[in-house]
């Protein structure tokens, strides 16, 4: 087993034994549900935002080990970060998982999350690893929609889906 593989196995095991930020966040201002029918992963991500910063985050649900470990590490990574930073991290994670970003390049903010780089060679597990980030994106997305009612400056670059393909 390679060193990278061994680290990967250890991280997955550790986060499954002791998932960080597990459970429902009582004072969450937003939440989103994530589903990966391919594997059966079904999770919820809870967010508490304060001044466009992720003050609190948690997750729960039923999922495979990769999804659970990814969600656990995600909550740890984005807690305390701004929404923009969290979205950038999510984009980098997706790019790494799909092989578009080279974790060795150093041109990213992934840190320990690079342990998941190996999933790019496992097409069926990519969705498991990415699901938590998709779910976080959804939760933030719904924040953005409500924030336009109360704030003059909606969150920029939160990745609103474009419906016009013109
Ligand atoms: Zn899975």
Overview of the molecule:
By secondary structure, the protein is an alpha+beta fold. It has a single domain, classed as Sufe protein. Chain: A. It has four helices and three strands. A three-stranded antiparallel β-sheet has the order 1-2-3, with helices on one face. Mean pLDDT is 86; it is low at 144-166. The protein binds zinc ion (ZN). Zinc ion (ZN) binds next to helix 2.
Structure in a nutshell:
The chain contains four helices and three strands. By secondary structure, it is α+β, with helices and mostly antiparallel strands.
CATH topology: Sufe protein. Chain: A
Overall 3D form: globular
Fraction of residues in helix: 40-55%
Indicate the structural class. alpha+beta
Protein topology:
Blueprint: H1 3-17, E1 30-36, E2 41-50, E3 53-62, H2 65-78, H3 83-97, H4 123-150
Antiparallel strand pairs: 1-2, 2-3
Helix pairs in contact: 1-2, 2-4, 3-4
Bound molecules: zinc ion.
The site of zinc ion (ZN) has 8 residues, from helix 2.
What labels describe this entry?
binds zinc ion, 3-stranded antiparallel sheet, 4 helices, 166 residues, 3 strands, alpha+beta, disordered C terminus, 43% helix, Sufe protein. Chain: A
